[in-house]
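quick one before i forget lol
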Amino acid sequence: MTSLFLESLSLRSFATFENQVIDFNSNFNGIVGETGSGKSLILDAFQLVLGARADKKLVRKGAAFATVEGKFKLKDEKFLSFFDELGFPIEEEYTVVIKRIIYATGKSKSFLNHLSCPLSVLSKFSKNFVDLVGQFENQKLTTPEYQMSLLDQFCENHLLLADYDVTYTSYKKNLTKIEQLTEALKDKGQREDYLRFQMRELELLDPSTEGEAKLLALKSQVLNKEESSKDLEQLKDLLSEGETNLLSLISAASKIIEKPAHFITDSSKENFLQLKSIAEDLSYDLSKISLEDDNGISIDNILEDLDRYQKLKRKFSVETDELQSLYNQFQEEIKALEDAEKKLEEALAEKDTVENRLYGLATKLHRKREKASHELSKLISIALKELNMEGATFKIDVTKLNSLGTSGLSLVNFEAETNKGEGFFKIKDIASGGELSRILLCLRQIVASEDTINIFFFDEIDTGIGGETAVKIAKALKKVSLGSQVLAITHLAQIAKEVDDIIFVEKKSLQVNDFIRTISCVSTKIGKEREEVINLLAGV
């Protein structure tokens, strides 16, 4: 049973399609129609849904924009987590909705499950669930990674691979740790000297927000005292200590006041004597005042400490309250450096242990792959001959690498000799679209696939074939469609006979006002109409 399939494709103002909804079944769909009817446009639309770049030429003449919307149906909950992890959860029950809008200006928008998304997300969906085989670029079958995956499925390596994957992840983390520790130890002495120097600077100051606030308060206090001290000295000079001062003037005046004089009254003498007494008392009081700082802190020391605060904050680009935590970080780094050698020894020992285990697992995988590659090569070669590729021989080349990789020690390449005696070459270099399609068909018939690929779109599978070969390919496609959705553009009656639904594409001319417009239409042919289409393809 197909776990995921394309349920429908809606096209609006898309090239020759005006407003069309194309429904698909979950098994075998044959897309047929005359050359130029619009079959390839369905493929173009499907590719857009899967993240292909948009071309403004696909917008129907006279329209501001075109839309393509694909709806995919899920039949298995295991797919739900994939979309949750992407950040595009499924809103409709078990339905994935992808929409593309292409504007006549050349701009485009893409949506997954009604949320705007980049094309890379749609491509990720495509790579996980769809195989497009034909004249376009996205052919998984030609990549070593996918070839390895298919071989591992044939070997039933899933448990061994899961063990290897967990161990390899641990191994890579440990290698990163070793690299970091080695780098740290490379300049250990120099780094420690630097850290200790910075710590000494911080220790001299012992920074804190409270300490800085206290220094600022002291600065204000000391500066105020200096100003007051100047005023006190000036007052003392004026009152008693200067060359010309109030007390000396009063003393001189006193000598005159003491003389008998008719203009000095007793009351005036009394007032003068009070003035002299007040001035003497004031002078005495001022002489007892001292503005020296009790704890002996000078303004120079205060300003020097405040300057250290500013320099440290600028140096480390932090605020005062972060200086202490910075000191703690330096302490921790020094401790980490002191422990680095021991940690490096432990990490190196762990590396050797895990590496030995990895090589053991990788060697098991490689041996299984080597053994299975011969068997699978024979089976595919036989299957290809059954599809009338008589001169073709298939070979899976498994090379042992010198270093460990994500899949072990193996490099897998699918090779083929399409004509006897001409030698083996990588299938990506020699196989045509039709040949790749047949090789994939053979693999899908042989490999009990557990991967997530559920939709196969074949475009060139019937190129240059007919007769018995076409019948065999049709049977093979039918077999694949029992477990996956198959969509095939075909011109052959032999294939059309085997499909579950014939999707017929035709062009019509419509009178629109004074103009004639071409429009592509799609219909599903059943019963008598189905037989008529098959006969048409057969030339009957």
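fyi The mean pLDDT is 85.
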